[in-house]
Amino acid sequence: MQFQFTITILIIAITVLISVSAFNNRKLTDDLVFFGPAIKHNNQWYRFLSHGLLHGDVFHLVFNMYALYWFGTSLEKSFAAPYIFGDLGRWIYLGLYVTALVVASIPDYIKHRDDNYFTSLGASGAIAAVMFGSIVLNPGLPIGLIFIPGPGIPGWLFAIIYLGVSMYLDRRGGSRVNHGAHFWGALYGLAFTVAFLKGFSDFDFVSNFLYEVGIKR
What is the DSSP string of the chain? Predict the structure, then answer.
């Protein structure tokens, strides 16, 4: 099988390079991590994007990049299909990923823009957006417990459970995991994909959803 260089591979390569570089470089982490006061008072708006290039540890990085590889490769290819977005598909996919990093962090900025003790890092919000974009196009996609395609429950059911659990855990608090970014990233991925399908594609995602869930044959 011939290797194909994709936007997903490029994102993974850049993220791995910077994440690994920051593991033992506190200054690099401090310069790139999401930190509300630095954004508000120092106009360091780049942190809305740069935090997605950092990860807390090797497991966090490997897990996120593995999920991005599976969902991202599939979604990027689907977006570029002639019956979806064609030649614009890969750029729309890149737009989804980049803007999801920002959108998933907006609630954190609103809540923590003056909080000197809150920081956030990781690409989970953008990856959740990519995952939900994949579910819009393929609602019947089996998703396993570790959030990758494979034996598991249908994507549409997984999406409902994912949103519910993320909302509950975010409201409960007390965790180092940013469940709010997962929730808002997922919702944004859903809204972005639906909006672009309605505006720039003839793909009937509603009929496809009804067929995938067994309502329409």
Answer: ------HHHHHHHHHHHHHHHHHT-HHHHHHHSB-HHHHHHH--TTHHHHGGG--SSHHHHHHHHHHHHHHHHHHHHHHTSTTTTGGGHHHHHHHHHHHHHHHTTHHHHHHHTT-TT--B--SHHHHHHHHHHHHHH-TT-EE-TTSSBSSSEEHHHHHHHHHHHHHHHHHH---SS-HHHHHHHHHHHHHHHHHHHHHH----HHHHHHHHTTS--
